[in-house]
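The protein record passed on for reference:
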Amino acid sequence: MVRLADIRQAAQRLQGQVLNTPCVESRTISQLTGAQVFLKFENLQFTASFKERGACNKLAQLSDAQRQRGVVAMSAGNHAQGVAYHAQRLGLRAVIVMPRFTPGVKVERTRSFGAEIVLYGDTLDEARSHALELAQQQQLTFVHPYDDEAIIAGQGTVGLEMLEAVPELDTLVVAVGGGGLIAGIAVAAKGLKPGIEVIGVQTLRFPNMFNAVKHAALPQGVSTIAEGIAVGTPGRLTQEIIERDVDDILLVDEGDIEQAIVMLLEIEKTLVEGAGAAGLAALLKHPERFRGRRVGLVLGGGNIDPLLLAAIIERGMVRAGRLARIRVGARDVPGSLARITAIVSEAGANINEVHHQRAFTMLAAQNVEIELVIQTRGRDHIRAVLGALQAGGFQAQEQ
């Protein structure tokens, strides 16, 4: 079993090898949530994820024979990059098995560290089975992403650093996939400060550890924007630690995570992937659970596909009322569209898109339906734009 002493030794081993990332208060998020919120910026690591802590700790302890043969790992991305990067630093061969759905940005980044990439299977479990086969065939050392004492101890150094930076923390909120990060942090935190509360967060689409610990049977989905914690099978070692040292596990949905990603980008000017934003998503979804507490959030990683990020930002603007789609009915006469756009402009909104529809509408034949996508300042502004259009004699409604 991993002990506090193991995590302290890992911290010494990692000194100068990984970044001691900032852990600082976000005053704006604190005001919004009612808790005093401190952010641990693990997305600032060289591979943009906490995963390189465990990987480095594991690789640093390999025997000479194991170093000569090399290592194999399976991962959706962040563990892959951590293993590949530190294997390259140490001059080791690294074979990385990644599921076929892995975002291209993570595949290419891992390949850039000199690793041999094998795309196999549609799930992490399928990738793991293939990685174990390769380990046996080629005598490679299998570096598990979470269910390994050296990995857990390495990830636990995050907890040591957080309590060293902010000793008064009374709650830690950590995303849970296989459980390596929260298990290590829980051992470190409970060892240093037994009364501290450690809360896990899983996505509703992949509640594997929630089911295991709470003896529930929630169904598992097939995809999530938090692919870093989309793990089908909880770790054996990690589950044992979580049952002992983690106080609760909360569930969040896709919209909660999207909102957290956009908030961190807007408020903190920091890019965080879905799994890394899960902790803040839990605070936003369950504010009463954390109100008045000193909360440490781990921003676990920042590797997100640019196209996915663009879609999340746009959807966030829609939810906030800053991007709206309105439908305007008008007489099909010259100047109608010009009058509509002039009214929208005078109301202070900006037009992104215009769709002029004659055939596919239930309006009278001499009328047209104009669909506008507009940028606004929020819900009140949308209502003001609609009011101005209606006052101008047009039928207008939000879609």
Summary: Residues 51-142 form a domain with the Rossmann fold fold (CATH 3.40.50.1100). The first helix runs from residue 4 to 14. The mean pLDDT is 93. The two ends are 56 Å apart (CA to CA).
